[in-house]
Amino acid sequence: MSEKNTWVYLCPSLLSAALVTMVAPAAWATISPISQSRNVSANATAIVPTITDTHNDALSAPGFAPFSAEVDPSALAFSPTSGLFAFASGVAKQNSSIGASAISGQGESSVNGTLLRGAGVSASATGSSGFDLVFLLNSLSTFTLSGLVDTASVVTGGASVPSLSNGVQLIDVDNGNAVLFSTATFDEAFLWSGTLPAGTYQLLADADVSGTSPASLTAPRTFNGISSYEFRMAFVPVPVPEASTVIGGMGLAGVCAATWLKRRSLARKAPTAEAAA
């Protein structure tokens, strides 16, 4: 095959390869973590006259690796002479992961208490699961943020209802810490998607519970409360051609066009069979 014919057959393939390269997404990570604070903590206190039992526990993520943790302290106060009794427990959990193109987290906090009737008897507990990540979005990207937040509580005997709260937020750090997204209630499913420019962002999630109650003088009391969050945020870079690739593709197109025009010109000048006769 002649050199001219080789160029004619190769040009379409080379141009196709150039176009694929121009629109191919970047190979580096879509997000780069800057700082993080992920932790779980809980405490419990039980009191009867002359006896107080208190316990607490906390764990935090040391770095950006996946974080899976649970703390569950409990407290028990019991007087054998009077028969007075109080029990309390607090629980906090978290499973979270920070990847190259997605962030996910699940957190839950709960409390419960049981009190027999009597003066001077009380129980209290707290639980907290917190997620805080500041990250750099390296390029213009589409995104999807989905998940849910939920709360529930049950009390008996006239015990105080636990305080419950939770939330998920996305903040634009580069624009005055503007809140781009926030859950509106403590009980909802959410789905948000769109496009975000390159920049620095902060993703927050928390679930907090606090319960405390004195005992009744006439009947036993119990309290239970739970708060939770779950989310996943995924990014896909928007393809942007690099200037060098575009220029290279334009140059290749020019070479192919010139080759085709030259071949066409030579074909017109070549004598036909009738002229040769």
Write the layout of secondary structure elements.
Layout: H1 3-23, E1 31-48, E2 51-60, E3 67-71, E4 74-78, E5 85-98, E6 102-115, E7 122-137, E8 141-156, E9 163-172, E10 178-182, E11 188-196, E12 199-214, E13 221-237, H2 243-269, H3 273-276
Antiparallel strand pairs: 1-2, 1-7, 3-5, 4-5, 5-6, 6-13, 7-12, 8-11, 8-13, 9-10, 9-12
Helix pairs in contact: 1-2
Q: How many distinct beta strands? A: 13
Could you tell me the radius of gyration in angstroms? 33 Å
Number of domains: 2
Number of helices: 3
Tell me, rounded to a whole number, the average pLDDT: 85
Unreliable segments (pLDDT under 50, ≥5 consecutive)? 1-27, 244-261, 272-277
Please state the overall shape, judged from the principal axes of the Cα atoms.
elongated
How does this structure look, described?
- This protein is of the alpha+beta class and 277 residues long.
- It folds into two domains: 3-24 and 241-276; 31-237, no CATH class.
- It has three helices and 13 strands, in the order H-E-E-E-E-E-E-E-E-E-E-E-E-E-H-H.
- It has helices at 3-23, 243-269, 273-276; strands spanning 31-48, 51-60, 67-71, 74-78, 85-98, 102-115, 122-137, 141-156, 163-172, 178-182, 188-196, 199-214, 221-237.
- Helix 1 packs antiparallel against helix 2 (243-269).
- The longest helix has 27 residues, at 243-269.
- The relative contact order is 0.20.
